[in-house]
């Protein structure tokens, strides 16, 4: 148990320090420092406003792309998705009391009538049997041919892009190599890997003999990219999703610092131009910057 | 402008109200941060981040009369200062600031006695100083300090005890007690 003397000593120390703190807290800070800090804060606040604006732009672009994608979907003929019941063997039972010729005739006419354009129906195996065990006809499903091209068509694609974000425009130069391609007739799915360099441009102000000079500097950030692309062969339109991881951690900038990843979704406008939103996760993924990307490829 | 009015305008993102709030409280917030960090550059960082947080979170702040705004802002600045301390945790060499002279706006030195006492607090090792500031000056309980710093209540108590013992000697030395 603490003695009274000890408690009194503790109280005195705490009280003296509290009083000193109260007095010290009232002391004014140097006015130039105060101004400098406010400039920094107001700059950051305006950056925040810009980020909100960029978010808005990014969201608008995403929304437009979604609508564009939706319109494309609506234009497509809706595919009939067969139910489980429909997918089971369609069994036709015929009464054997009738003459066999009439069955064949009836069957031929029915099959002719059932010649439907739907590709789904052609997938369903149809078996017609007589009561008992005699099989008259079995129609095998027509499975559409798929072509898998893995590492066959390695044609590198060079692209030039730019991202509009809170720090302005950051140009990008990169190359993609397809590593896997799968074509299902209607769509072509591709997986590509690549590397790109994104340049942050800024002007450094230098005072030389009373005059201010602006030196433009470009700081590169090298990204390793993985891209998934789906192409609608009939419309020749492409959607692509790309993720990139920053490889060089030495050239830190405001938007690309420490561990940085970026993710983007692009929609092709034509064979060479793609546009879409981009999100940059930087500073060990603690900060998020939205942007809009434009890609021109070979 | 009245505090309540100031808060209301800051909630509306009024730039002039934000500037007024900053001008009114910056000195106090900077001094509080400096007590924890004992380094001017780090205190500036903490104050900058703190005010950004204040402006972004003022929308959720409910003004409950005089003192509530200062208390809320103080808590944010203390938390930001602790955040800076946590970031510095991995540095092997502690940064020492030699110039801690507290000068008023017109250059006249403040009360030397108070200045010396604050300097003695700043001289304490980081752990002692943080716990002493939180407990003796800000009035947090050991449980709250434990939660804030990620230490046990007993560690907080022992750090406080050692801080007091160290301060008792130094304050006697400078003739403050």
TrEMBL record, chain A:
Q: Which UniProt keywords apply?
A: Membrane, Transmembrane, Transmembrane helix
Query: From which domain of life does this come?
Result: Bacteria
Q: Carries keyword Transmembrane?
A: yes
List membrane-spanning regions.
Answer: 52-74
Q: What is this protein called?
A: Uncharacterized protein
Automatic annotation (TrEMBL), chain B:
Supply the SUPFAM superfamilies for this chain: Sigma2 domain of RNA polymerase sigma factors, Sigma3 and sigma4 domains of RNA polymerase sigma factors
The record, for CDD domains, names: Sigma70_r4
Give GO MF terms, alphabetically: DNA binding; sigma factor activity
One Pfam family this chain carries? Sigma70_r4_2
One of the protein's GO biological processes: DNA-templated transcription initiation
Q: What are the RNA polymerase sigma factor 70 region 4 type domain coordinates in residue numbering? A: 116-167
Q: Does the keyword Disulfide bond apply?
A: no
Which residue ranges does the record assign to the RNA polymerase sigma-70 region domain?
21-89
Any coiled-coil ranges, and where? none
- Keywords, A to Z? Sigma factor, Transcription, Transcription regulation
Transcription keyword on record: yes
Q: What's the superkingdom here?
A: Bacteria
Supply the NCBIfam families for this chain.
Answer: sigma70-ECF
Please state which protein family the record places this protein in.
Belongs to the sigma-70 factor family. ECF subfamily.
Q: What is this protein called?
A: RNA polymerase sigma-70 factor, ECF subfamily
């Amino acid at each position: 148990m603490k003695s009274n003397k000890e408690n009194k000593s503790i109280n005195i120390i705490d009280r003296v320090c509290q009083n000193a703190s109260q007095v010290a807290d009232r002391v004014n800070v140097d006015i130039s420092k105060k101004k400098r800090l406010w400039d920094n804060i107001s700059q950051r606040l305006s950056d925040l406003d810009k980020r909100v604006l960029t978010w808005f732009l990014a969201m608008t672009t995403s929304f437009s792309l979604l609508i564009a994608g939706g319109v494309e979907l609506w234009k497509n003929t809706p595919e009939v998705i067969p139910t489980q019941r429909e997918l089971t063997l369609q069994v036709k039972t015929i009464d054997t009391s009738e003459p066999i010729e009439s069955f064949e005739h009836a069957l031929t006419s029915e099959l002719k009538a059932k010649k439907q354009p739907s590709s789904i129906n052609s997938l369903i195996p149809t078996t017609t049997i007589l009561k008992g065990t005699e099989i008259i006809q079995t129609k095998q499903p027509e499975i559409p041919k798929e072509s898998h091209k893995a590492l066959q068509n390695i044609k590198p694609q060079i692209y030039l892009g730019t991202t509009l974000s809170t720090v302005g425009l950051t140009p990008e130069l990169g190359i993609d190599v397809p590593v896997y391609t799968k074509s299902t007739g209607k769509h072509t799915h591709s997986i590509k890997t690549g590397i790109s360099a994104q340049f942050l441009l800024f002007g450094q102000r230098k005072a030389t003999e009373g005059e201010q000079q602006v030196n433009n500097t470009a700081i590169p950030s090298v990204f390793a990219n993985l891209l998934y692309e789906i192409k609608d062969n009939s419309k020749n339109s492409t959607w692509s999703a790309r993720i990139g991881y920053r490889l060089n951690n030495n050239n830190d900038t405001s938007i690309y610092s420490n561990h940085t990843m970026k993710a983007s979704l692009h929609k092709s406008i034509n064979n060479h131009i793609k546009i879409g939103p981009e999100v940059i996760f930087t500073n060990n993924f603690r900060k998020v910057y939205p942007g809009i990307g434009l890609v021109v490829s070979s | 402008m009245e505090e309540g009015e100031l808060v209301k305008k800051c909630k509306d993102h009024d730039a002039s109200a934000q500037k007024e709030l900053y001008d009114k409280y910056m000195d106090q917030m900077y001094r509080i941060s400096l007590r924890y960090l004992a380094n001017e550059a780090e205190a500036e960082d903490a104050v900058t981040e703190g005010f950004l947080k204040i402006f972004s979170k003022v929308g959720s702040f409910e003004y409950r009369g005089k003192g509530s705004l200062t208390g809320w802002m103080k808590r944010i600045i203390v938390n930001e200062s602790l955040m800076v301390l946590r970031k510095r945790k991995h540095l092997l060499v502690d940064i020492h600031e030699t110039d801690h002279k507290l000068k008023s706006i017109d250059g006249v030195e403040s009360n030397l006695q108070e200045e010396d006492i604050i300097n003695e607090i700043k001289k304490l090792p980081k752990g002692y100083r943080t716990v002493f500031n939180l407990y003796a000056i800000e009035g947090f309980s050991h449980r709250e300090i434990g939660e804030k710093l990620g230490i046990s209540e007993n560690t907080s108590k022992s750090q406080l005890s050692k801080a007091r013992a160290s301060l008792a000697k130094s304050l006697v030395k400078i003739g403050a007690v």
